[in-house]
Amino acid sequence: MAPCSPLLTSDPSRPPRFLPALFCIINCLLLFACGNGENNVTSGLASQTLHWGNGAEPQELDPHIVTGLPEHHIIVGLLEGLVLKDPATLEPIPGMAESWDISDDGKTYTFHIRANARWSNGDPVTSADFVWSWWRALQPALGNLYAYMYYPIKNAEAYATGKLDDFSEVGVKAIDTKTLEVILANPTPYFLQLLDHYSMFPVHRATIEKFGDPSERGTRWTRAGNFVGNGPFILKQWDLNRLVMIEKSPTYYDADKVRLNAIRFYPTENVSTEERMFRAGQLHVTGSLPADKIAVYKKTNPQALRISPYLGTYFYRINTTVEHLTDKRIRRALAMAINRQQIIDTVTKGEQMPAFTFTPPNTLGYTAENGFAEDLETAKALLAEAGYANGEGFPPTELLYNSSEGHRKLAVAIQQMWKKHLNIDISLNNQDWKVYLDSVTTGNYQIARAGWIGDYVDPNTFLDMWLTDGGNNSTGWHNDEYDRLISEAAPRAKERTQRYAHFRRAEALLLDAMPIIPIYTYNSIHLVHPNVKGLPSNILDYALYKQMYLSEE
Amino acid sequence: MSSLDQNNSPEINSTKPNHINPSKSSAFEEKGSSLWRDAWHRLQKNKMALLGLVVMVTMCIVALLTPWITVYGYEEQNLVLGASPPSAAHWLGTDTLGRDLLTRILYGSRISLAVGFIATAVALLIGVIYGTVAGYMGGRVDAAMMRLVDILYALPFMIFIILLMVIFGRNIFLLFLAIGAVEWLTMARIVRGQVQSLRQQEFVEAAVSIGLGPWAIIRRHLIPNTLGPVIVYTTLTIPNVMLLESFLSFLGLGIQPPQSSWGLLISYGVETMEEYPWLLIFPGLALSLTLFALNFLGDGLRDALDPRAAKD
Amino acid sequence: MSEKTQESVLRVDDLSIRFKTRNGSSQAVDSVSFEVARGETLAIVGESGSGKSVTCYSLLGLIPQPPGVIESGVAQFASQGQQRDLLRSDKQTLRSLLGDKIAVIFQDPMTCLNPYLTIGEQLVEPLRQHKNKSREQARQRAIELIEEVGINNAKMRFASYPHEFSGGMRQRVMIAMALITEPELLIADEPTTALDVTIQAQILDLLDELKKRRNIALIFISHDLSVVASIADRVAVMRAGEIVETGEAQQIFKQPQHPYTQQLLASVPSGPKPAQSSQVDPQTQPLLKVEHLQTVFEQGKAGLFAASPAPTIAVNDVSFELRHHEILGLVGESGSGKSTLGRSLIQLIKPTAGSVQLDGQELTQLNPKQLKPLRQRMQMIFQDPYASLNPRMTVFDTLAEPLLYHRLATRKNVTPQVLALMDDVGLAHADIRKYPHEFSGGQRQRIAIGRAIATKPELIVADEPVSALDVTIQAQILDLILSLVNKHNLSMLFISHDLSVVRYIADRVLVMHQGKLIESGDTETLWANPSEAYTQTLFAAVPQLGSH
Amino acid sequence: MARFILIRLLQAIPVLLVVITVTFFLVRLAPGGPFSAEKAVPAEVLKALEARYHLDQPVINQYFSYLGDLARGDFGPSFKYPGRSVNEMIAAGLPATAELGLYAMCFALLIGASAGVIAALKPNSAQDYIPMSTAMLGICLPSFLLGPLLMLIFGVWLEWVPVSGWGDIPGDKILPALTLASGYTAYIARLSRGGMLEVMSQDYIRTARAKGLPEWKVVLKHGLRGGMIPVIAFIGPAFAGLLSGSFVVETIFQIPGLGRFYVQAAFNRDYTMIMGTTVLFATLIILFNLLADIVAVWLNPRLRDLYRSGGA
User: Fold this and answer.
1) Does A285 score more than 90 pLDDT?
2) Which residues of chain A does B268 touch, with a Cβ-Cβ cutoff of 8 Å?
3) What DSSP letter does each residue of A144-166 carry, written as one string?
4) How many CB atoms lie within 10 A of CB A299?
5) Which of C390, C412, C463 to probe the B interface (max B CBs under 10 A)?
6) In this model, does residue A33 exceed pLDDT 60?
7) Looking at the predicted structure, is the pLDDT value of residue A114 above 80?
8) What is the DSSP annotation of B190-221?
9) On the CB side of D97, how many CA atoms lie within 13 Å of its CA?
10) What is the mean pLDDT of chain D?
């Protein structure tokens, strides 16, 4: 309304003064432009401030509520779980717990919390903090989507789903102020992996209770100034949609080893802009890179380009309840007729690996056998067997994807491949994200694009979703033997090799029936400024801030 | 400078009625609406407008003939080739999937021109009628009608689109309707403003005194006199509509890949404007050409439809 | 009056101006010469398009070039002993003279003042521009001048906007603005044409007085011979770009030499109605009977602004009768409510109260649908032939519309009827496909009349049908109306502010003032003996040809 | 005047109520709830979440309790951002959007009006065509194209201004404001050209010339005020449209504004946020339309008096 006020207040006998006012505003704007000196990368080097492209505005910073990657990046700076991971090997290393003991049956874990572990307000971190935090995380009213991370713990599932009211029956107990005992329902080899997930992080009880009920969503305890954490950084500033800044915490037990003074997270929703910000020296690290830019960086700035395998699979779901898709020969034919390498070369361009299994190869030593091979002749034969020789009479089929440039391109390429190789016409349909989710979960689709990122490094995070009642199955496919292998045989296995053998058998069943068509294994693709040190690549895309620093050498 | 009557008054010379041989009068037999026929004559004298018309007509003809004049299919990929700059084989280059850009622009013109014209026509039809009625009726009817426009303005567009998509599924005609349903609001406002001032004019009073009903007055006296601003706004709306189409198609309402439209080609081209600039430049040129052609045509039409503007 | 010893302020010799358009060129001014001296009033008289305005504006650089081309001529302007040829001065020089030594008063004070700026702001502008006066000095001078041109309460008026003034007051402001820099030459272009007759008299007096007091040269451009007669010392008569006759005012009016001057003088309506037309039928019931008619305006009702100021009573308790074959004159000044009364009669405006009966049938209670058949029997002719014709309809469309709409003709046989109408109103058949803007004002009014008589109505309300027309055209249109009234047995309410016109055409006259009928009577009776004071003032203000 | 404003504000109440009601029920018709996510949400969690936000109650109850909250000025909590109330998010986003809109409008006015005025001084000449064509480019260059283009040229290649941000680095507000302004510049140029053409043919301009004023003074002092009236009438509603339509620019330049929420809320099915932004924008549309009317009245002394005498 400001431009109008000079009009309204001016002496009516004089001509309008809004033109001078206009000039003033523009001048102010232009004056701001002067004195544009050094960019973030240069200034960050002196102040040890890391500028991080974080992909999106965090929904929340409450570890028991949030679900996304942007939130993850911030929370791991503010809070710390019992264990950390070595970013190079992903093996557990001490975090809040300086050591831990595992019983021989693999069911009882005893954690010894550091004596010098403190919250940012100076309070010591105790085992009671964990018990209370985990109790809170399992409160149904909180709506914690990652409650299932706790399910390996005895009775946790029953408590979370309301079948059990008494938390003392859940297998977590404070032996003394610095000793925490956790009892599992079954031996869970990947349990230590889970502990580094933010959903199992401790939170500061007094702070939370100060701002509301422990099971109340969205109280103000996560705001800058209120937030009390136990991680290497403290929350300094949180401007909606603009910036989250964390600064080095003086109370952190390892504070002298932390070399970064601050990290500034930017909600870089637009990937093209993010890339340009990087180029203009406004960012040290980007969350992603547009596919068509990869080749450019390879040529011009290869040292900034960081491509590494990632624990995720891009695949197509097939609705096995749709009449012509009940036939697994057709599903296999579709899978075989895709030239994955060509798609990777021309569409995704990120050196991804063609996927012939669902679980990414070498997931903590697990690699499934390829369930099929690209073979046009076999594909045609299978299709003919199913009654559609040379694709004739193949019913109209629709491929669903959620609105996105990348998914679109891939779908168009695959549509064309199926047309060319099998002579079948597939139509494309894109839907807005929420509509797409609704269509997939209600089975209102024929073929749908999907992707799955592992929550932790273990084949289980990929394979348990195809259980008959798996919430993420949505294909209508079920197999009793598969269910038995995943939910009974594998957890009881004594050794990793045996356990992996069960998984392999299960995955072979899955790939034989082919309710899903694996396309490729994800790569994480980032731009990282050469000044950034201590950020090795790993399959979880996991960064340990306390090892990172900025240096020009 | 109305008082500077540049022509010598013919008044003195025509004091007596000119009796012309009645047989000659049959030459003035009336056929159809003379306003449009006269406008056409005047338009022919405006070179820029004529050029705009020629460009538009050529575009429409090429769009219609596209399936017969293109060498490649619009969906035909060449993944091995990928994106390639203009060459002898592909005059305007190829996109990242190796599809011929010229072919895709030509096929895209079919969608874009159809959307541009039909959706704008829908908006024009609703907007002009609605605005004229509101402006002519005045008073409470007008207030109520304009409040309805306010309401429609204020409703969240995205929700409307998502619902349309869900309820009706993918449908190109739906796209026309959806866009038309949005664009008519501004049109209605413009027309209403025009009609409000026209309504005060004596020739409308004269029409009332003849006994013409509201509809006849609106149709014969009001709408023809609002054409000027309406045409100008229309020529600005058409390119807007073409771009809106790409947004809706991206969301899933409208056309589906591998079909293309100019708006979609431009929005894809933006993503790779550094690596493959031709993917942005050529569709962009197509749209700009249309806009300028339409603009000159629109200005020409406006002048042609205003008998007073033809001063020469 | 004009002693030739007086120095000549402006002397124009052999001025020729041509307008070039794509369709060829026209000679707007052809070898015109005249001069005007200090303290003298030169009137340039001519009809619209005669080139009288172009002549003056060309001297001031106010005509657009192109299309205007000054082909030849010299315009010597003498100021403070300096002689300048205006036509050969550069823009800078001309601009320094304009508004300073030479000032202009334009015709329409309603449109010639900037509605967005206060009177004061506009008044001080020439002073600030040419005399380098401070804002305060300029203000003082402006206030003095506002008083001098006869506006009370000058200090307050200084900050007023033009719309707060009546037409006459605005013209006073225009005069003040012109005089503020003490010019030596004043050009007044039809300064009173848009004004009511009483106001016109005042403005003419003011101009004359100021001219004498300040001893300035005045060029007075007008089409109205009666007005010119009351102010001019010398007269130049222009026609088609040429000065056909020039001379002392008295000589021109008494003994016009050129036939065109004679024609002009003959066209000025004067005297009573030609007797042959009166066929009024007094015994039968009246065609139109109006009783206690009242029309009230809710101001500001139009548009989306619903808030309404106090209502205006435009027509207040009016009763009269209109007999068959009668032409009833209705006179009054602007704002007297005469137009509203006319519109209320034929239900273009719904009256608030009272009754209107056409041939015994009550009109005020009818809805538009019921009115439709009656519309055929009553029609209206509007004042402004520019505004009352749809600019996007040809003559054919305009004339055919009522015929087709009332099913008096079909698409097939409408053309002969339209042509017959054109014959009736004296339009050339060749013009049938032309648009209104291609016609002159008089021809447009012929079209409007044609439209009004198309349905063969019994009653026509004519609202100032000739006031926008030149005097010779006016005479033609009046004669046309009289002949059509006779030919088609029409009855007419003839509304006009021009008393001479009404006297010339009306059988009976009603006088309206501030919404009320204050006097009525047979035309000649009333002329001879107006009883109301207002009517007397009105009659007294009418400029007479012989008054000089 | 006061009365006129009061009446218009009263008229706004039913308009807002209809907008609220329609939107409230429409958003709940759209498939996909606010809590659906890629990983299936367990039933008990979903139940807990719905109970938390009272979505388990009958819709009609939700509606009335929402109206109740709204009457107290409480837009409720955001579903997508659990820690934020809608009020808070609007308070955080509106200033940036308003500032962006203000700058954009200034640019649009400055460029558009200059182009229009310059063009109107010599119609149908090069002085007309060149500025007008330049302004028309704004329509060919939609913000999703112009934004990245400016960013690339001035941010990356020339390094004159930052690529993105808002108030972080000096000069980061220029590119987004220019981008947002582009579309409106064309409209303003056309409107001011038309307005100036109309005004410059008025008699009072001739009066001003007859005073011997220099041409620039005639144009700026006497012409501009009347010539800008159509522009003023346009920028009121346009400013409201600019705010709700700024999401593309906000996304491209990563501006922490409200436009992003307005669109994202629809995609996230963040019911309260959709409602909040819709109510806000509806209010803004009504207010700015009103403001435009008031300014139009204020600029026109005649109307000003009419309302002064009729109103308070």
Assistant:
1) yes
2) 405
3) -TTGGGGTTBTTHHHHHTTS---
4) 9
5) C390
6) no
7) yes
8) HHHHHHHHHHTSHHHHHHHHHT--HHHIIIII
9) 29
10) 85
Residues of D numbered 265-304 whose beta carbons fall under 8 angstroms of chain B's beta carbons: which are they? 266-267, 274, 277-278, 281-282, 285-286, 289
Q: Where are the alpha helices (DSSP H) in chain B?
A: 22-25, 34-45, 47-69, 101-137, 139-154, 157-168, 172-199, 202-210, 214-216, 223-251, 262-271, 278-305
Closest partner residue to D83 (CB to CB) among A218, A272, A474 is: A218
Distance from CA of A292 to the nearest CA of B (A): 7
Q: Is the peptide bond before D142 cis (omega within 30 degrees of 0)?
A: no
Contact C440 B29 (CB under 8 A): no
Amino acid identity at D64: F
Selected for mutation to probe chain A from C113, C114, C117 (highest A CB count within 10 Å) is C117
Rounded to an integer, the average pLDDT of C482-504 is 87
What does the pLDDT read at residue A2? 32
Q: What is the 3-state secondary structure (H, E, C) of D173-199?
A: CHHHHHHHHHHHHHHHHHHHHHHHHHH
A508-542 confidence digits (pLDDT tens) = 999 999 999 999 999 999 999 999 999 988 888 88
- How far B177 CA sits from the closest chain A CA (Å)? 19
Q: Do D106 and A25 touch (CB under 8 A)?
A: yes
Residues of D whose CB is below 8 A from C125: 208, 211, 213
Residue C531, burial from CB neighbour count under 10 angstroms (0-12, 13-18, 19+): exposed
Q: Is the ipTM of this complex over 0.90?
A: no
B141: contact with C, CB 8 A cutoff: no
In the three-class reduction of DSSP (H, G, I as helix; E, B as strand; rest coil), residue A221 is classed as: helix
Across A350-354, B113-117, B306-310, D26-30, least confident range? B306-310
pLDDT digits (tens, 9 = 90+) for C29-53: 888 888 888 888 899 988 777 888 8
Please tell me the predicted confidence (pLDDT) of residue C546. 56
The confidence score (pLDDT) of residue A29 equals 57
C266 touches chain A (CB under 8 A): no
pLDDT in tens, B182-195: 888 888 888 888 88
Average pLDDT over residues C384-406: 87
Contact residues on chain A for D173, CB-CB shorter than 8 A: 29, 32
How far D146 CA sits from the closest chain A CA (Å)? 13
pLDDT digits 0-9 by tens, B88-106: 888 898 988 889 999 999 9
Q: State which amino acid sits at residue D45.
A: V
| Residue A387 φ/ψ region, left for φ over 0, alpha for ψ in the -120 to 50 degree band, beta for the rest | left
CA–centroid distance for D206 within its chain: 38
Residues B6 and B8: their CA atoms lie apart, in Å, by 6
Other residues' Cβ atoms within 10 Å of the Cβ of residue A353: 16
Mutation target vs B (from D18, D274, D277; most B CBs, 10 A cutoff): D18
Tens digits of per-residue pLDDT, D202-238? Answer: 888 888 888 888 888 888 888 888 888 888 878 877 8
CB C469 within 8 A of CB C386: no
Dihedral pair phi/psi, residue A542, rounded to 5°: -100, 130
Residues of B in contact with A339 (CB under 8 A): 79
Count Cβ atoms below 10 Å from residue D237 Cβ, excluding itself: 20
Question: Can you tell me the mean pLDDT for C250-273?
Answer: 82
The verdict on a CB contact (< 8 Å) between A345 and B79 is: yes
Q: For residues C62 and A412, what is the distance between their CA atoms, to the nearest angstrom?
A: 68
Q: Is the pLDDT of residue D309 over 60?
A: no
- Whether A141 contacts chain B with CB within 8 A: no
Task: Identify the three-state secondary structure at position B253.
Answer: coil
DSSP states along B214-248: HHHIIIIIIHHHHHHHHHHHHHHHHHHHHHHHHHH
Query: Which residues on chain D are in Cβ contact (under 8 Å) with A143?
Result: 35, 45, 48-49, 52
